[in-house]
Amino acid sequence: MDLPLIRLAEVDSTQAFLRRNPQLGFCAVLADRQTEGRGRQGNRWESASGAGLWMSVALPSPSGVAPGLVLQRAMIAAARVLDPEGRALGLKWPNDLVAWRDGRLVKLGGILGEQVGGRLILGLGVNLTWAPAIPDRAILPASLVDLELSSGPTPDLAFCIIRYWTNLAQDLQPLFRWPEAGSPIHWEGGQGTCLGWEPDGRLKVASAEGIRRLSAGDVSGLGREL
């Protein structure tokens, strides 16, 4: 499926733009700057002009793919485009784009997904040339430039990602997943040990309350136990 790409100089958020314009049908929107970008759990996502990839895509809902896998596969696809040689980028549960830098996990991007009518709207934000300083975050922001990865023109990146996203039934694998089995982890309201990633996208953990299988909406602030 070839989707039209709308490019905007500035918008509140690409995700909100597609939500309020259902008449556009299946399409993609790319912005140079967002004034009200947002991430998971209602967090604000810094979207400085020309510093990143800010895009949303309205697609038909993929059939036969567990809801918990949709965003993971979409983010793995983005990693394939941004890091084609598989040098640095991996997936942090449930669907963050991360890398290891100086022995620490850093976050380069996030993704949102919403079912709106008959459309699945995926929203992606990735720091390409700059990342905001947010010292109170357990996992600090970083950019592709910080990792010495080159990105290329944002429209080219967007078109490549869109091609992957039109086939989310494809089972792509990331360079690495965090947490891996055996990693001690904590989240808002609990702590435990990762036992692995389930085939449906949930995270299997051992906690004081027993074995749990966490969905993306169950937790926030997932981090390492130090």
From TrEMBL:
Signal peptide: none annotated. Pfam families: BPL_LplA_LipB. Coiled coil: none annotated. It comes from the Bacteria. Residues 1-176 form the BPL/LPL catalytic domain. This is BPL/LPL catalytic domain-containing protein. It comes from Geothrix edaphica.
